[in-house]
Give the backbone structure.
Amino acid sequence: MSVVTVQLGQCGNQVGQQLLHSLLCDAQNGQRKELCTATRERFFHQDTHGELVARAVLIDMEPKVINQSISRAARSGMWRYGETSHFSQKQGSGNNWANGFCVHGPAHREVVEELVRREVERCDRLSGLLAMMSVAGGTGSGVGTYVTQCLRDVYPKSFILNHLTWPYGTGEVIVQNYNSVLTLAHLYQLSDAILVHENDTVHQICSQLLNIKHISFADVNSVIAHQLGSVLQPALTADSQGAYSRNPLGELVSALCCHPEFKLLSISSIPQVPLASMAYSSFSWPSLLKHLRQMLISNTKMEEGIDWQVRPPAAAERSRSLTAGGFNTSLANVLILRGKDVYSAETGGFEDPALYSSWLSPQEAFSVWKSPVPFNKYEKSATLVSNSQALLRPLDSMVGGAWNMFASRAYIHQYTKFGISEEDFLDSFSSLEQVISSYKQLR
Amino acid sequence: MTQSVVVQVGQCGNQVGCRFWDLALREHAHVNKKGLYDEALSSFFRNVDSRKCDGEAHVVGGRIQHLKARAVLVDMEEGVVNEILQGPLREMFDSTQLLTDVSGSGNNWAVGHMTYGSAYREQIVDKLRKAAEHCDCLQCFFLIHSMGGGTGSGLGTKVLSLLEEEFPEVCRIVTSIYPSAEDDVVTSPYNSILAMRELTEHADCVLPVENQSLVDIVKKIKHMSHSGKPGTVIRRESAIISGQGGLIGAEKPFDAMNNIVANLLLNITSSARFEGSLNMDLNEIAMNLVPFPRLHYLVPSLTPLYTLADVSVPSRRLDQMFSDAFSKEHQLIRADPKHSLYLACALMVRGNVQVSDLRRNIERLKPSLPFVSWNQEGWKTGLCSVPPVGHSHSLLALANNTCVKTTFMELRERFTKLYRKKAHLHHYLHVEGMEQSHFSEALSSLSSLIEEYHQLDATKGRLMPGAPRLRIAR
Ligand SMILES: Nc1nc2c(ncn2[C@@H]2O[C@H](COP(=O)(O)OP(=O)(O)OP(=O)(O)O)[C@@H](O)[C@H]2O)c(=O)[nH]1
Ligand SMILES: Nc1nc2c(ncn2[C@@H]2O[C@H](COP(=O)(O)OP(=O)(O)O)[C@@H](O)[C@H]2O)c(=O)[nH]1
Ligand SMILES: [Mg+2]
Ligand SMILES: [Mg+2]
C-alpha cells in the first residue's frame, strides 16, 4: 500500500524532501530486495524509464523553496519529484494563518485537489495521506489546514496524518503562537493523528548527541527524517504474518489514536550518535530498551540527561488520583525495533500497566513492530511513537503565550483583515484548553 | 517571485535611490555570473529589448539585454534627476519613469503636498500604474524621501496616500531621512511633523534614519580606515559607506551616508530576492513587527559596518555582529534600544550563518533586552544564503522599540520653538489648501503617538501576571 505525501510551505517542503531521501537511501543501502521493493511501492512509483518518482505533491505560496527541493531530489540521481506534481505562487502567506486559510487555500483548492487526486489514482492501494508542514508560518499552517480540510472532504474514509514541526520556543516567527493555536485547533477536528517534532528538541539532539557545531536546518531535518523514517519504513507487525505490513498509517492510527480527544503523538529514537563514532559503538537491546523506557516515563527526548528517579506511580497513588512527580502517563505506545537480533529483544518493560491510563489494558495500549533489517546504518535501533502527556508542556506554553498576546489584542488586526474574527480565536482557544485538560487528567 | 517598485521623491530621495540602484546592480553582478536575467534580478529590474523604443520586456530566463529599474523618480527640481540622467545609471531609467518640475518646493511641506500634490496628481498616479503594470506580482512599494525638505516631505507623503488609494493591497515601506538638529533647512521641524502625521496614517512600515547617525557612522568608519594600525585594514568594498565596484566613480558629499541607507534597502530585500534556509518575505515584516497599526516605526541597525582584511577569528566576529546590532553606535537613529522597551525584533541574517548561530545569540542577548510582557519571545528571524558583496555574513536588525519616541520628542521640541513664535508660518498659510489646523492636527497626532509609546514604556520592568486562562466547562 502506498502513502501520498503532501508537502506544504517552506518547512514541509524541506523536511519532506529529506524524509523521502532518507527512506530511499536506507532501503537501497541494505541490499534487502524485499524491503527495497516495499519502500519503493510505498513512497515512489516508476516512470517509463524506470526512474523513481516520489508519490508526493509540493505546495507553497512562493517558488524558491519548491525549486530547491525539486532540484535537490534530482541531483541525488536516485529519485525525483513528478514533473507536474507541484504548485506554487509568487508571494508567500506572510506568516499569516488567516491569509493562508482564508485567501490562498480557497483560491487554489481545485488545483491542489487535482494534484493530490492524480497521485492517489496512481496508487494501487492507498494507505493514506501524510501532510507535512510547520505550524508557525502562514502557508504550511494556514494553507496546510485548509488543504487538510479539503482532503478530509474528498477522502472521508482515508487515513490522514499530519506531521507538524513546532517552532523554537524562543521565537522565530513572532505570531507563531497564534498560528499554532489556529492550526492545532482546526486539525484536531480533521486529522486522524498529529505527529509532532519540536525544533528545540531536535536541535538539542543535533548539538548534544550528534555533536554538530554549526547546526543548519539541513541537520535538523536529517534527524526528523531519521526518526520519522524509522516509523514509516516497512516493518513487521503482530498480525502481518511475516510479510511487511501493508498499511503503516492505518496501523499507526489504530494502535495509537483510539479516542478523538487524544491525537498528539511524539517520537523518540535511540541510539543517535555521530556518524563518525557509529563504527565504535555497540548497543544491546536490553540497554537500549531500558533507556527508551525511562525516556518515555520521565519525558526526556534524549538518552542524555534522563531522570532515573522518575517511577510509575503505585496503584494506590493512582486511585487517589495523584500525579507522581514528573511521571509521563501514556495512553498508547508503538515501539519499532530494527536491526540485529531483533527477535530476542525483550519488550516487557513497556507492557507494565502502570505506564498507561487505567482505561486501556496494556495489550490494547502497546504494540511492537519489528524488522531484522538495520535502519539508517544503525546496527540496532528503537523508536517509540507515543500518545502521552509528552507534548502537554509545549502545548500549554503555546496556548498560554497566544492567550497573553490575545489579551492585549496585539496583532489581531492582521487576522481580522483576512476574515478571522476574535470569536474564531476564542473557539480555537477553548478547544485547545479542552485538549490540554484531557491530557492533564490522563491517569 | 514578486516585484517591488521604488518611488524616490525629492533631492534626498533621489540621491539615496541612486546609490541603491548602483549598489543593487553591483550585488547582482557579483552573484549572477552567467549574465542571465533571473528571478532575483526581476524583483527590482526589468529586462527590455533596447532596440525597440517601447521596450518590450523579456521574461525570466533569457540573457540580460538591458536592465531598467522598477522605479519612479519624482522631484520638483531638475538638478538631481538631470545629474542621474547624465551619469552611468542613465540607461536604467526612461522618461516615462520621471517627473520633474523646475522651481522646487522651497523647503515648504505645503508647497510639495498641496500645490504640487494637486497639480501632478494624475501624472503621478499614471506613472505609478505604469510601473505596476510591468510587474506580474507587485508586492511592495519602497518610498524613499527626506522629512526636512519640501518635495520629499510634502509631495512624498502625498505620493504615499496616493499609493494607499490606488494600491491598497500592496505593502508600503517608507524609508524616511530625518534632519539633524543642525540641519540647514530652518523649517525642517515643521516639514517633519507635518509629514509624520501622514506616515503614521498611511504607511505599513517606516524605517526612520537620522542624518546625524549616518554622519557618526561615516566618521567612525573613516577613522578606522585612516588609523593605519596593523590588522585594521578595511577590505575594499566591504565598508557599508563604500561604493567601490559600483558604476559611479567619484563620490559626492552625501554618497557615503547614502550608501548606508542603500545597504539597508539591499538587506531588507535580500531574502525576497535570494534563496535561504529560512526565507523572510517582505510581507512578513509588518506581520511580525507591527502589533498595532500606528506603531509601525522600525529602528534599523546594520552590522558589520566593514570587515577587516585579515579574516582571523571569524566566529567571535559573528557573535560580535549580533552584539553590535543592539548597541547604540549601530542604530540608524540616535537612540538606545537596549534601555527602552522592545515590542518586537527581527534579525535578518545573510551569508554563512546557521540556525544554531541565531539561537545561541538570541539566548545570549535576550536577558539584557527588555521585551513587552505579552511578547517575551518577540523574535523574527530570517536566513538568506547570499551575503552582501565583500562580506561573509551580515545582519540587519529591525526593532519595534519605544526608543523611537526620543527622536520624535526632540523633533516636537524644535517644532514648538518655531511654532510658538509663529516663525515662517505665513509661508505655509499662503499656500492654497493649507490651514493652521494642519499644524495643530499634525502636532496632536504626533503627541498621541508619543503618548502610546510612553504608556508601553510604563509597563516596563513591571511584573505582569499572565492573563487568567480561559476556563472550560467539563
Ligand atoms: N525543522 C525545520 N523547521 C523549519 C524548516 N524550515 C522552516 N522551519 C520552521 O517553520 C516555521 C516557519 O514556517 P515556514 O515553513 O517557513 O513557513 P511557510 O509555511 O512557508 O509559510 P509562509 O512563509 O508564512 O507563507 C519556523 O518554526 C521554522 O523554524 C526546516 O527546514 N526544518
Ligand atoms: N542622508 C541624506 N540626506 C539628504 C540628502 N539630500 C538632502 N538631505 C536632507 O534632506 C533634507 C532636505 O530635503 P531635500 O531632500 O533636500 O528637499 P526636497 O528635495 O525638497 O525633498 C535635509 O534634512 C537634508 O539634510 C542626501 O543625499 N542624503
Ligand atoms: Mg514560506
Ligand atoms: Mg533641498
In short: Residues A 9-10, 62, 92, 137, 139; B 279 surround magnesium ion (ligand 3) (CB under 6 Å). DSSP finds 16 helices and 13 strands in chain A.
